[in-house]
Amino acid sequence: MVEVRETRLPGVGTKFTIRTHDDERVCAVVHLDGLREVYIGGDDDEEPTVVTLNDDEARQLGAILSGVVYRPQLVQDLELALKDLVMEWIELPADSPIVGLTVATCRIRSTTGATIVAILRDKGSLATPHPDEVLRAGDTLVIIGRPETFKDIRRLVAEGPPAQST
Asked: Which domain holds residue 138?
């Protein structure tokens, strides 16, 4: 959970500060008159980037960021079609042990129950790739499965398929 530091600014309003996952400092000052200022950066003697928003703009941006106001129709349609399934895009780093393996021998489907529905490549993407298709460094695998399977899929991409028992 993200830690939020709240500081009262007498006569001005309240400042809220968080650190992002990239360790960037983000502050929001909510003025008593409804004006909002968002400060990004500002560590190590650098000047922060500042965005000033009125009350309406701040509320609209907040609603957009939280997914309340704007939800693309495509996302709504996908959520309805997929129900309890999730689709994720996973890029294959050059050092992945499954680079050079075929779709079949990487064993994503047999070990996790998820399916590679497409492989995105710079020079020609593949929908429903053949089991004999060889995976390449830089491929982006479009995988559909249950949410809990993606931890295992990421491990498989990082460590390779488990040894088959004979």
From this structure: 75-159
Q: Quote the CA–CA distance of 164 and 99 in Å, as a whole number.
A: 18
Q: What is the DSSP letter of 163?
A: P
Output the six-digit token pair for 10: 């007498």
Q: What is the pLDDT of residue 132?
A: 94
Element (H, E) at 126: strand 126-127
* Domain identity same for 101 and 46: no
Residue type, 158: A
Helix, strand, or coil (residue 120): strand
C-alpha count within 13 angstroms, C-beta hemisphere, residue 146: 7
Residues in the chain: 166
Enumerate residues 6+ apart whose C-beta is below 8 A from 108: 114, 115, 116, 141, 143, 153, 156
Number of domains in the chain: 2
Q: What pLDDT digit, counting tens, does each position of 96-120 carry?
A: 999 999 999 999 999 999 999 899 9
Residue 68's pLDDT is 56
Are 33 and 25 contacting, i.e. CB atoms less than 8 angstroms apart?
no
Same domain for 112 and 48? no
Q: Which of 9, 34, 7, 32 is nearest to 18 (CA)?
A: 7
The span from the CA of 139 to the CA of 83, in Å, is: 27
